[in-house]
Amino acid sequence: FDFFPLFYSPFLSFICSTFRVHSFILTPENKMKKKINVVPYDNNWPQIFEVFSKEIKDALKENCIKIYHVGSTSVPGLCSKPVIDIMCIVNDLKIAEKKLIQIGYKSKGELNLPLRLFFSKKHPHDVHIHVVKENSDEIAWNLVFQNYLRKDKNARDMYADVKLNLIKENPDGFNIIEGLFSEYTIKKGEIIRQIAKKAGFNGYRFMILTDRNEIETYKKFMNLEKVDFSNKNTFHLCLYKGIDIVAVACVNFDTNNSIATMKSIKSTNSENQKIMENKINEWVTFHNLSLNKD
């Protein structure tokens, strides 16, 4: 996830299935180590993208609106893990999921980004697919970041230095939670935020709470001493505008009764609150739930 900044916290709520919601608590017992392989830019990466792009288009047919090569392998001259990241914009997420599974991709649900379906394939090349609808904020996030790195050598070199230094400082590998994110990804968060700010990204991003900074901001908005992550069906959400959090919400999923309840929502202003409410409503509708307010 080169362009999907995530950060370590003791708690990470996430969607591990497209149609079911779960929580996962990070503990020392479930940590593992993973070696991260960062290699120099490979001129073959754009051609590899084209091969998989055609495969995806052929499978999704008219459901596929647009496909982009994203992530570090899409930036000439930038070192990267040798994984081709593909953003696929579709009309229908559920149809896309079914078709991609049929051609051998493994579905990993939404992870920390509601309404972004993630898929992976290891052979004949490592490929990650990020599937979103046309109104997704993740499209602008990825393209603004990508285009800035392509044109600004200083930013590109700065990002590369952070990656290479992380590898050098962690010769035995990085802690990783199975099915989640390595500390390599987590520790790139600050430099990604700096570059996004320089790039002028000012769009919205709707996310499930994942890092300590988000937790602290959430507590301030909600006037809480701590956040309760014990209920696997309760989701703590944040809305970014640019690199700043402008709204937070707590939503509970009752899948047995097809109901989602908005327990609380706080924002910097009424406009951001309305945007947050609309995103939550779209998310719960995707999961075949109706939204109630507590």
Task: Report on the biggest sheet.
Answer: 5 strands, mixed
What is the succession of H and E elements?
Answer: EEEHEEHEEEHHEHHEHEEEHE
- Which of globular, elongated, flat, extended, rod-shaped describes the shape? globular
Write down the Rg.
Answer: 19 Å
Instruction: Give the terminus-to-terminus CA distance.
Output: 35 Å
Helix vs. strand class:
alpha+beta
Could you estimate the helical fraction of the residues in percent? 25-40%
What's the short version?
The chain has 294 residues and is of the alpha+beta class.
Can you offer a commentary on this structure?
This protein is of the alpha+beta class. It is built from 8 helices and 14 strands. A hairpin with a 4-residue loop joins β12 (244-254) and β13. α3 (137-151) crosses α4 and α3 (137-151) crosses α6 (189-199). The longest helix has 17 residues, at 153-169.
What labels describe this entry?
294 residues, alpha+beta, 14 strands, five-stranded mixed beta sheet
Sequence-ordered SSE layout with sheet pairings:
Blueprint: E1 11-14, E2 22-25, E3 31-34, H1 45-60, E4 64-70, E5 84-90, H2 93-102, E6 106-107, E7 117-121, E8 127-133, H3 137-151, H4 153-169, E9 174-177, H5 183-187, H6 189-199, E10 204-208, H7 212-222, E11 234-241, E12 244-254, E13 259-267, H8 270-286, E14 290-293
Parallel strand pairs: 5-8, 13-14
Antiparallel strand pairs: 1-2, 3-9, 4-5, 6-7, 7-8, 10-11, 11-12, 12-13
Helix pairs in contact: 3-4, 3-6
